[in-house]
Amino acid sequence: MKHLIGKGFAAMIVVLAFIGTGIDIANGQTAADGFKPTANGPIFKIQNAHGRWTYIIGTFSTIDGQSRSRMARFTNAGILDSSYNPAPNSSVQDFAPLGDDIVAVGNFTSIGGLASDGLARLNISGNNTGTLNTTFDIDPAAVAIQPDGKILVGGAFNVVNGVSASKLVRLNSDGSLDNSFTASIDNTVWGITVDPDGKILINGQFTNVSGQSRPNFARLNSNGSLDTGFMAGAALAGGNDHTFYAAVQPDRKIVVVGRFTRFGDFNTPRNRVVRLMPNGDVDGTFSANLDSYATEVRVQPDMKILVAGYFTSVNGVTRGGLARLNSDGSLDQAFAGNTGTAGAAGVGVGTLDLLYNGCVLIAGTFTQFNGTTGFNGIGMIYPDGTIDADTNPGFTGGPAATLVSLPGGKTLAGGGFTNVGGLARRGMVRLNWNGSVDTAFADPNLTGWVYSIGVQSDGKYIAGGDFTSAAGGPRAKLARINPNGTIDNTFAPTFNTNAWISDVAIQNDGKIIIAGSFTSVNGTAKSNIARLNSNGTLDTSFTGSADQAVLRVAITGDGKVLIGGYFANVNGAAKVGIARLNSTGTTDTAFSTTLGGTIEPYVDNFVFDKFGRILIAGSFTTVNGAARTYINRLNADGTNDGTFTPPTLDSTVRALSVDLNQRIFIAGRWTTVNGVARPGVVELGLNGAFARPLVASGANDVLSMTHRPDGKILFGGYFTTVSGLSRNQFAAVRTGYGSLSFIQAGPTSMTWRRGSAEVELNRVIFERSTDGVNWAYLGDGTRTLYSEWSLNIPNADQTSYIRARGFHGDFSNARSMYEQMAFVVKPPAGKAPFDLDGDGKTDISVFRPGPGEWWYLRSSDGGNRAFQFGTGTDTAVPADFTGDGKTDIAFWRPAAGEWYVLRSEDSTFYAFPFGSNGDIPAPADYDGDGKADTAVFRPSTSTWFVRRSTDNAAVVTPFGTAGDKPVPADYDGDGKADVAIFRPTGGSGGGEWWYLRSSDGANRAFAFGTSTDLTVPGDYTGDGKADLAYFRPSTGEWYVLRSEDSSFFAFPWGASGDLPAPGDYDGDGRIDAAVFRPSNSNWFALRSTAGPLILQFGTTGDRPLPNAFVR
Fold first, then answer.
1. Sign, CA torsion 905/907/908/912
2. Alpha carbon 589 to chain centroid distance?
3. Are 532 and 480 in contact, with CB atoms under 8 Å apart?
4. 1081, 1097 contact by CB (below 8 A)
5. How far apart are CA 363 and CA 380, in angstroms?
């Protein structure tokens, strides 16, 4: 802004914060922000756990000069965690996260303070829990964790716990052998991958599995037997040399890497990397060639493939140890990779891990990357393939007055500079991930200062400031710049000579609100605020005005306009320093804030949080009569937020940021915080209390700040050193926080699930693409939970790329932004109830009350799965709460009215209260978004309470009377469950069914059944509507009232004492009659297409899951 020069205050700031779990930097960080821990020996594996910590194992004895033997942990800032030191007495060969713990395998006999025979479970502090006392005759080499918490261990061993075991075993959580798993492999297993269907991929140097030829690679069923249908008929059912690693794509294709040069057949070269179809056939659409072996592979959400190893070329192009492939195997030239010497003379990348923010952890034996030195075996690669080194481009001529984060790690900077990183860049520059100048963006050559930058939806930029020319031609105060840095000469508004533009806000309709100090726009009188049409002409329908300069402008969620500045009057009425306008420019009288305490109080920056509160910064000592100096938080109406207690600062705040946890980052020109010397970049707690400094020294005059998804804060200002390091007017520090976010799609909605420590977003849009390049807008997302955004649309899960883009700073699409992409594969047609493996068929499954165990028989492969979740007094309520096409294990705890859901995606759980003791749980998809909604029926008042997953709103519906039983189902075929009850004793003495049609709100009632019948509604006829149905226990008969014509049919299936367990057991879209016989745990299913199914599954006291909602 103009007052940067005249009075020393800050420009409009657009900020983003990516926050995760803790790092304690009591005295501030160094400005050496590169991720480059130093190990004195090779690294075997690097992996980030839960977005919190990065673990490494190897042969090192020191990390960053500190003693650390063979295993260590870093914060997300790359700082050694000095409290974590398991100190194994010999090598760790592999490890895997298990909750907050780590399961490690190797050659050690002692680790974490206790004796262990090559296998140990370490808690989050690095202490050995002592729970795994398994013994091996030969030390294990590989480990993987199943979703149910059981532990797969591989290696060259033959005996485990004194029992013969051939190279691969599955252990229970106490380290005992799982005797339901038996594998037979003739040589060493080096790698284990559990695929999404529960099958097990193994890599190694074996030749036979279960007596059949499977050289170096195989897939096992969940019970350890060979999956004989995988690679069936291949001339070479595996590779001609060792395989090391396998990764499963979202479409279930499998990428395998190793030493091999042939795979699948003996004639076709397949050099070190191959992709297989889900059935094991070689995918002929994929072709890549490495000149030496690959050690690990990861598939990105956009289906691109990262490969690490000891190669020096990929497809004939120089790449040393790290490369990214397109989905067809061609080299992704946009990924810089390593063109240096990392692949030469046995030097390379031995291990990697893909982070949620798109960055890549690498470890190996390299000391430089693409010519960047200072590394010793550990590094982090940005999504563009450059390495995370210290950010130090160097600005000369003036600092960055504004910073804007862009997708892909780019950052726009505007200010008074003339040179950046040794290149001529006047007024505006675009930086890459590593802080270098993006040379694809030409020098706009804006002579003067740029105070603000807005981003149009077409990718063009609007720059406002106090400049007189652009690219050598006349262009004063406001310019539009093309994405390549050239000037858009079709946009040429004019202003009075002494004008300056301090801020711009681009509405979602493309119109541009400009703020600053001016008296005319395009020859028309306008006072300090105006709105332009997208072509630069004046929008005369906007009538707002201020008597003095407006410094900051932002769009609110309801389309209103918040302004801050030097003004004392707005639209002719007294408004000092801050005001809110309606969309037409008139004053919004519902908003009122009074600033005081200085000669000329003003607000020059503000940001919104998710509660609609406004964090403001400026020059004031009182707000609404209360003492507040330089910073405050307002409620949406302008009153003070009484929960906010800011620290005491000795000078102004210039930049603000709020994260999803409502932690606050501020930057400015103060030198003390609460009377203690603290440089000008700090973190505050959610209610304003000082939390920690982010720099140790310097940086006492910061103008601008932005926060990137890799956890770095970039800032510019009038400084030359930060934390004792030379940093000319621009620097970066790490917050130390991580990122946890991913995209999911169901039949009727898509959701961006975000970790609780990421940037607070004001607006999210969703887009779709068939090629990952050209995107079509689908709609604006709605915040469904505090950390989630969803969009409800038909066929949301069609096979395609989907992208979520989040905007922050205000509620327009013109501020800082970041995005996440995923490739979605549509699940099989039909959604069967109680389908725990997502294959479109109901699974035979039970809840075992005594130990609170869930057991199911996967219809996809016949394998057993078991989970411990809940207690014997809990009520089973399995349903697809997350919308991934798989039923989630879930229970309702009646005494507390709490729900517990075990996500099928990753076996994490969440819990929440909804309902009270005496309620009857009745989950179903009431809003048609493809996710089960939590719901209860309260018999005492005959009231339904439904919490919709679309918007988290609770809907209360009185429906029913005393003695009714809830039987929700989609009776009208509109894709939404209808509120419904079964009345055992109706008006005629028989059973009555009543339901409330969600399609039109009308009631329907039918007399069908008696008081002793059991309700089993479902779509038995396949017309897309649930049929009324009951099971008569006394005779074992089923009665179904067709939804098509209200005729009924009946048939016998079962006997007295059987428990009805209806479901779609053959996946044909029709509900099948089925019963569970408690006396012998036999199941009898009358499948409508596949015919009768009879088998035994369960034990005495088990409760069949498909019986969970039978009333």
1. positive
2. 40
3. no
4. yes
5. 9
Indicate the helix (H) or strand (E) that contains 896: none
How far apart are alpha carbons 39 and 58 in whole angstroms?
Answer: 9
SS3 159: strand
- What single string gives the DSSP state of each residue in 1061-1084? --B-TT-SSS-BEEEEETTTTEEE
Closest CA to 1082 of 1058, 1049, 1110: 1058
Contact between 269 and 281 (Cβ < 8 Å): no
Question: Could you give the angle at the alpha carbon of 921 between the alpha carbons of 916 and 925, nearest 5°?
Answer: 125
Dihedral-angle region of residue 820 (phi above 0 means left; psi in -120 to 50 means alpha; beta otherwise): beta
Spatial distance between the Cα atoms of 604 and 577, rounded to a whole number of angstroms = 8
Of 445, 437, 450, 438, the residue nearest 402 (C-alpha): 450
Compute the chain's Rg from CA coordinates.
32
- In the block, residue with structure tokens 């003390």: 672
Residue 529 contacts residue 548 (beta carbons within 8 Å): no
AA identity, residue 879: A
- Examine the pLDDT at 24 and tell me if it is beyond 60: no
- How far is Cα 684 from Cα 747, in angstroms, rounded to an integer? 41
Q: Are 881 and 887 in contact (CB under 8 A)?
A: no
- Dig out the tokens for 1071 from the structure: 């509900």
Dihedral, 474, 478, 484, 486 alpha carbons, nearest 10? -10
Give the rounded percent of residues in the chain with a pLDDT score beyond 90. Answer: 66
Nearest to 980 by CA among 993, 999, 989: 993
Q: Kindly report, residue by residue over 942-989, the tens digit of the pLDDT.
A: 999 999 887 778 899 999 888 899 999 999 888 889 999 999 887 666
Q: Please indicate whether residue 36 or residue 432 has the higher confidence score (pLDDT).
A: 432
Whether residue 530 contacts residue 499, with contact meaning beta carbons closer than 8 Å, is answered with: no
Going by their DSSP bridges, the two strands 844-848 and 816-824 should be labelled as: unpaired
pTM over 0.85? The answer is no
CB 922 within 8 Å of CB 912: no
Q: Using an 8 Å Cβ cutoff, are 773 and 112 in contact? A: no
Across residues 210-220, what is the average pLDDT? 96
Residues 1015 and 513: their CA atoms lie apart, in Å, by 61
Asked if the model's pLDDT at residue 819 lies above 50, the reply is yes
Cβ–Cβ contacts within 10 Å for residue 152, how many?
A: 26
Q: Got the DSSP string for 340-400?
A: SSTTGGG--EEEEEE-TTS-EEEEES-S-BTTB---BSEEEE-TTS-B-------EESS-E
The answer, yes or no, to whether residue 717 has pLDDT greater than 90, is yes
How far from chain centre, in Å, is Cα 745? 13
Q: Is the pLDDT of residue 428 over 80?
A: yes
Report the amino acid identity of residue 487: I
For 89, the token pair is: 């007495």
Instruction: List, as own/partner pairs, every contact residues 200-204 make where C-beta atoms lie below 8 angstroms and the sequence separation is at least 24, other chains included.
Output: 200/144, 200/152, 200/224, 201/246, 201/248, 201/254, 202/154, 202/168, 203/242, 203/243, 203/244, 203/245, 203/246, 203/256, 203/258, 204/154, 204/167, 204/242, 204/243
E strand or H helix that includes residue 1057: none
What DSSP state is assigned to residue 761?
A: P
- Cα 889 off chain centre by: 22
pLDDT tens for 556-574 read 989 999 999 999 999 999 9
Q: What are the structure tokens assigned to 1065, written together? A: 């057991």
pLDDT at 19: 28
Among the listed residues 644, 663, 633, the one whose alpha carbon sits nearest the alpha carbon of residue 757: 663
- Tokens representing 324 are 């990214």
The dihedral region occupied by 1090, where left means phi > 0, alpha psi between -120 and 50, and beta the remainder, is: alpha
Decide: helix, strand or coil at residue 10. coil
471 dihedral zone (left: phi>0; alpha: psi -120 to 50; beta) = left
User: Closest Cα partner for 286 from 300, 303, 302, 301?
Assistant: 303
